[in-house]
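Entry 14. Structure prediction run on the chain below.
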Amino acid sequence: MGQMVAERTGYVRTSSRPQPFVEQGGRLSHALINASSDVTISDLKDMVRNLKPKKRLSTTFRFLNENLDLDQNSKTMLLRLASDIRSGHYRNTKLSLVGFSDSDGSAQTNLSISLIRAEYVKEALFTLLEPEDPLRESIETLTFGEVLPITCDNSSLGQKTNRRVEVWVE
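Output returned:
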């Protein structure tokens, strides 16, 4: 109940709810229309092929700056995700930590940066899980760089919003 009240007042949701890939139509059309000249149709097909069988959780990790510093909300979400994993919530699923970037720089550089961020979140998550936790084996990282922006990149806030790691489940 408290979570719903907080969401209605504009606070960021900390619980996760899955959203099937087919419900991502607006995001996909935005990606197609706003793709930079560095993004190829092959990049878009690769993303669709990888994400289509999955559901996106509302859990998204954001960074304070262009480095690897998670913002406070992301640190809270990391603790929640680790707790959910430890409690067996994601048993028999595959978790994908999917890295995205803004479009500042070359597509190849952005792909590398988004992979570094996704791997960083994975390692941060692993520090919160037991080394023998069998779910560690079912956590992968994927990266698509600037392929799926969620807002315009023409401002520092837009760029910051697009630099993220999303959680998808299969």
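Residues 107-128 form the longest helix (22 residues).
Filed with the rest of this week's runs.
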